[in-house]
Specification:
Distance between the termini: 6 Å
Radius of gyration: 19 Å
Largest sheet: 5 strands, parallel
Structural class: alpha/beta
Bound molecules: N-carbamoyl-L-aspartate
Strand order of the largest sheet: 7-6-5-8-9
CATH class of the largest domain: Alpha Beta
CATH architecture of the largest domain: 3-Layer(aba) Sandwich
Mean pLDDT: 92
CATH superfamily of the largest domain: Aspartate/ornithine carbamoyltransferase
Length: about 325
């Protein structure tokens, strides 16, 4: 059995297989019968120690569309607020017979800890750990880029994608650099030096401090949320100055190629990293990213779980 902890867990072939399977799942979601019986009788736990809107509800929708039973756990309102450890929580869920645990945690490495432990026998999927990784977000971003710019087939070679803003605190950026470059895209990180992580020069990406110079050359621009909750220091002088240099606004929209798309993983700080006019423009695929997330997460659950021994599931050849 394998887990999905990092975008680097995926080979080129596996990543493309997930995107292709997701495209099939999207066709099911668009059809008259939205539900597949594939994971009937399997239990999937959404284990969320950190706040989430999109990732949690889209994983729930994905699991339900595959007919799995879903248990939603969020730390708020649970015994975690009484000091219960990850180990005790995981063992409780194991007692419920979890076949897959989708975990979001503020500590980088928590999904790895769970996968390496005896605490659960289920498949572990990382839904965002600290500032480390968020592999399903990268997969849904790659899916969205491919759908728009490659008519939904093949890899992402020939495309240039800018990831802009708070790279330092972004697990989305880290997973996207790994996955998009694996799929052949050229990635440019645009941020103030204070919001770039140590060692970023070793990532498979170019670095720029000049958004206006980069925009005319990109096929997609991915804006990142300024993660104030992870900032215990001053990373830029004022919000106004940040927006001036690194925010997406109507003037900058005019610099983009006609075919370029605007992305954001959400939640957005409207008016800080992106203006409302850009977020709601015809070039924005931000809402569609969420819908694509369901298809991608269905594909991941299917490929990871359908390979494991169980009664009414076809065998999955990709990640088994
Ligand atoms: C992101 C996350 O939680 O890492 N959002 C998401 O999963 N869609 C990005 C963020 O919090 O800014």
């Amino acid at each position: 059995m394998r887990h999905l902890l990092s975008a680097s867990d995926l080979s080129y072939t596996e990543a493309l297989s997930i995107l292709d399977t997701a495209a099939q799942m999207a066709r099911v979601s668009d059809g008259p019968i939205k539900k597949l019986p594939t994971l009937r009788g399997r239990t999937i736990v959404n284990l969320f120690f950190e706040d989430s809107t999109r990732t949690r509800i889209s994983f729930e929708a994905a699991a339900k569309r595959l007919s799995a039973d879903v248990i939603n756990f969020s730390a708020k309102g649970s015994s975690v607020s009484k000091g219960e450890s990850l180990k005790d929580t995981a063992q409780t869920l194991q007692a419920m017979g979890a076949d897959a645990v989708i975990i979001r945690h503020s500590a980088s490495g928590a999904p790895q800890r769970l996968a390496d432990s005896e605490w659960t026998s289920g498949v572990v999927i990382n839904a965002g750990d600290g500032t480390h990784e968020h592999p399903t977000q990268a997969l849904l971003d790659a899916f969205t880029i491919r759908k728009h710019l490659k008519v939904g087939v093949g890899d992402l070679s020939g495309l240039t994608i800018a990831i802009v803003g708070d790279i330092l605190h972004s697990r989305v950026a880290r997973s996207n650099v790994i996955l998009l470059s694996l799929l052949g895209a050229q990635v440019i990180l645009v941020a103030p030096p204070t919001l770039l992580p140590l060692g970023v020069e070793n990532w498979s990406a170019q670095i720029s401090y000049d958004l206006d110079a980069v925009l005319p050359h990109v096929d997609a621009v991915m804006m990142l949320r300024v993660q104030q909750e992870r900032m215990n220091d001053f990373f830029f002088p004022t919000a106004r100055e940040y927006s001036h240099y690194f925010g997406l606004n109507s003037d900058r929209l005019a610099l983009l190629k006609k075919s370029a798309i605007i992305m954001h993983p959400g939640p957005m700080n409207r008016g800080l990293e992106i203006t409302a006019a850009c977020a709601d423009s015809a070039r924005s695929v931000i809402v569609e990213q969420v819908a694509n997330g369901v298809s991608v997460q269905m594909a991941v659950l299917y490929l990871l779980l359908a390979g494991a021994p169980n009664e009414n599931v076809e065998s999955g050849e990709v990640l088994s």
